[in-house]
Design goal:
heterodimer, A: about 425 residues, alpha+beta, OB fold (Dihydrolipoamide Acetyltransferase, E2P), Dihydrolipoamide Transferase, Chloramphenicol Acetyltransferase, four-stranded antiparallel β-sheet, 20 strands, globular, B: about 325 residues, alpha/beta, Rossmann fold, 2 domains, seven-stranded mixed β-sheet, 12 helices, about 35% helix
Chain lengths: ~425, ~325
């Protein structure tokens, strides 16, 4: 029996995908797990895998066309099996018209006495149940996104109570079902068994909002709906960073100015942990990790891969990872888990000569740093004008969970770390 | 505490209750002069005489009816069925008279009777003699259904069954008669209803009764070696059912596996799944799993019989399934 291969949701936000390339041809044998096609999603180019063994009988969506998540893109079955393809799929292969148009011309030429041997094809909507059809819907096996969210009743209740957004939780059960241990992981409670992260990372803590915080959050959201931003700017003297960078270069270690900023942004979170939070419904996630996103401009947009535990990594390691992530981001080859999460993002437009700008927060993070160019500027120093390498940094904070004074402390620490970069090496 | 076999625990219960109450008598095929097909009534004829330990012809419907009539007029019969497979012949008396007479007489009549005998597989007894029939009796209002696992539970529950003013279907297990266990000395009467939590753990609830308790216990031991700890709930009594114990455990562990010797379709386990899904839906982290005998008649051939029956490995696999820890 031939089965439909449907376009799976390859990222949490994917609604449709463009079929870039078929990696298997019609008639090719495929095994479970084989990559059969490459699809461009809203974030990256990812591969679609076969969920079953069989022969690729028919390709429904040609290269270059867009299909909705859940729409059939091909048929899989046994060698030599015939496939009845539903009437030409309308554009984007969704919602076939309820009744295919019968061929009036064909019926018209039949002599009246001859009984119609072939009944009109049933409406496509009946395909799944009609035994005469060779198509079997295979919804169970596609990723849940785009359809309903799969979660155990317990997981749903736990998530509701803890204010965890199940949409952001990766399910580890069958067909991606979100189960207790997944919610525990999202809530930061230790899941007793089966956590296979290489090194134990501190899980975020779920904190209730204080009543004052709730009022502030409400007021701010009234004034500025969405994520109510506020902004703080500071100039950072970058002479020491540049000197250190020269030394690193001499030692053949590749480090960019941005790598220093990423490390400073991460370390400063330790000093001011209260900005290392995320608002989740009526709870606050307090992170104990320092994961820093880096905004990478790509051909038709931008993406923010995350450098995990940037506080624990050396500048050289951050540099290498950042280059590797950025390179794959440009190729659209990032995996979803590489661009989700994170405590704070660094957005740097310095290379474009931008002196200063303000950035939009990347939810569910609560803050972002907008970094301008390092440039010679005349500043007052010891009562005299001096020309110094200076860089402007602007902090945007989510005012529902972060206040100006906290943001100022954090920004002050970022500045101090960059002006005394030896602290980034300790 | 003394370690005695199941058949001896039942024998003690019968002897003690017959001594205690002159209205109690035992009736069935070969219970008297042969001392019982499974030697449960060993020595009772000698002790209590042929008026109270009565051999019957091979006519289950007849002597079941005799017992129901005796119960209606004040005696407390214990009717031994040589096996519950044979009691299918007596269903009419058990279901239509014993189970209904109290309600249909508006409480004027009572039917304090115990029907007891071996239930379930006996090992290569083939299709007609290997059935687990508890679901049939649990179906009818008016009957209590008891299915213990250990000698102590068997003794304490049989005594309570004999003292109960309602008809009780008391299910023994042919393969358990020789199984030994500690039984407290002295008077032991256990109430009909409460389940027994035989093991405590927080990962999964294993629910079972009668002989399957031993398979569940073996599975629990194997799981423990892998760090999986289960609540092992031995129901002991299927009707009345200890709903509170089941729900409390499932709410604690968020998962349940039900182990039943009999067939799946309309089995007792199906009723338990319904209870759990309707009362503890929000506590569930995985669909409830059932481990039951396969849906075929028992074969005489040993290989085929084993292939169709519950074993510890299947229970272990089901527990891992609800824990989302399948191998491979």
């Amino acid at each position: 029996m031939a089965t439909e291969i449907q376009l799976p949701a390859l990222s949490p936000t994917m609604k449709e995908g463009k079929l870039l390339k078929w990696l298997k041809k019609e008639g090719d044998r495929v095994s479970t797990g084989d990559a059969i096609a490459e699809v461009e999603t809203d974030k990256s180019n990812l591969e679609v895998e076969a969920y079953d063994d069989g022969v690729l009988l028919k390709i429904l969506v040609p290269e270059g066309e867009v299909a909705q998540v859940g729409a059939p893109i091909a048929y899989l079955g046994q060698k030599g099996e015939m496939v009845e393809v539903p009437p030409p799929a309308p554009k984007q292969a969704v919602a076939p018209s309820p009744l295919p148009v019968a061929k009036p011309a064909a019926t018209a030429v039949l002599p009246a006495a001859v009984p119609r041997a072939v009944p009109p094809p049933p409406p496509p909507a009946l395909r799944a149940g009609a035994p005469a059809q060779v198509v079997q819907l295979h919804r169970e096996e596609v990723a849940p996104e785009g359809g309903r969210l799969r979660a155990s009743p317990l997981a749903k209740r736990m998530a509701q109570q803890a204010g965890v957004d199940l949409g952001a939780v990766q399910g580890s059960g069958p067909q991606g079902r979100i189960v207790k241990r997944d919610v525990e992981a999202a809530m930061g409670e230790p899941a007793p068994a089966r956590r296979s992260l290489p090194a134990a990372r501190a899980e975020p803590e779920v904190l209730a909002l204080s009543s004052m915080r709730k009022v502030i959050a409400q007021r701010m959201a009234e004034v500025k709906p969405g994520v109510p931003h506020f902004y703080l700017s500071v100039d950072v003297d970058m002479e020491a960073v540049l000197a250190l960078r020269e030394e690193a270069k001499a030692a053949e270690v590749k480090v960019s100015v941005n790598d220093f900023i990423v490390k400073a942004a991460a370390l400063a979170l330790h000093k001011v942990p209260k900005v290392n939070v995320s608002l989740q419904a009526d709870r606050v996630l307090q992170f104990h990790t320092a994961d820093v996103g880096i905004a990478v401009a790509i051909e038709d947009g931008l993406i923010t891969p995350v450098i995990r535990d940037a506080d624990l990594k050396s500048l050289g390691a951050i540099g290498a990872e950042a280059r590797e992530l950025a390179e794959r981001a440009r190729r659209k080859a990032l995996k979803p888990e590489e661009y989700t999460g994170g405590s704070v993002t660094v957005s740097n437009l310095g290379m474009y000569g931008v002196d200063a700008f303000i950035a939009v927060i990347n939810p569910p993070q609560a803050c972002i740093l907008a970094v301008g160019a390092v440039a010679d500027r005349v500043v007052a120093r010891d009562g005299h004008p001096a020309v110094r390498k200076t860089m402007s940094v602007t902090f945007s904070g989510d005012h529902r969970v972060v206040d100006g004074a906290l943001g100022a402390l954090y920004l002050q620490e970022v500045k101090a770390l960059l002006e005394h970069p030896v602290r980034l090496l300790l | 505490m003394a370690e005695i076999a199941w058949r001896e625990a039942l024998n003690q219960a019968l002897a003690e209750e017959m001594e205690r109450d002159a209205n109690v008598f035992l009736m069935g095929e070969e219970v008297a002069r042969y001392d019982g097909a499974y030697k449960v009534s060993q020595g009772l004829l000698a002790k209590f005489g042929s008026a109270r330990v009565v051999d019957t012809p091979i006519s289950e419907l007849g002597f079941a009816g005799l017992g129901v009539g005796a119960a209606m007029v004040g005696l407390r019969p214990v009717i031994e069925m040589m096996t519950w497979n044979f009691a299918v012949l007596a269903m009419d008396q058990i279901v239509h008279n014993a189970a209904k007479v109290r309600q249909m007489s508006g409480g004027q009549l009572r039917c304090p009777i115990v029907f007891r005998g071996p239930n379930g597989a006996g090992g290569r007894l083939a299709a007609q003699h290997s059935q687990s029939l508890e679901a049939n009796y649990a179906h009818f209002p008016g009957l209590k259904v008891v299915a213990p696992s250990t000698p102590a539970d068997a003794k304490g529950l049989l005594k309570a069954s004999i003292r109960d003013d309602n008809p009780v279907v008391f299910l023994e297990a042919e393969l358990l008669y020789g199984v030994k266990g500690d039984v407290p000395q002295g008077e032991l009467v256990l109430p009909l209803g409460p389940a027994s939590l035989k093991r405590e753990g927080s990962d999964c609830t294993l629910i079972t009764w009668s002989r399957m308790y031993y398979h569940a216990e073996e599975a629990a031991r194997q799981l423990e070696a892998e760090g999986i700890h289960v609540d092992l709930l031995d129901l002991r009594t299927l009707k009345p059912l200890d709903e509170a114990a089941i729900l409390a455990s499932v709410r604690k562990t968020n998962r349940a596996v039900i182990v039943e010797e009999g067939w799946s379709f309309c089995g007792v386990g199906a009723q338990l799944v319904d209870l759990i899904q309707s009362q503890a839906f929000d506590a569930l982290d995985a669909p409830v799993q059932r481990v039951t005998g396969l849906d075929v008649n028992r074969s005489y051939a040993a290989v085929l019989e084993h292939a169709a029956e519950v074993n510890p490995a299947r229970i272990v696999a089901a527990v891992k399934h609800v824990l989302y820890r399948e191998e491979g």
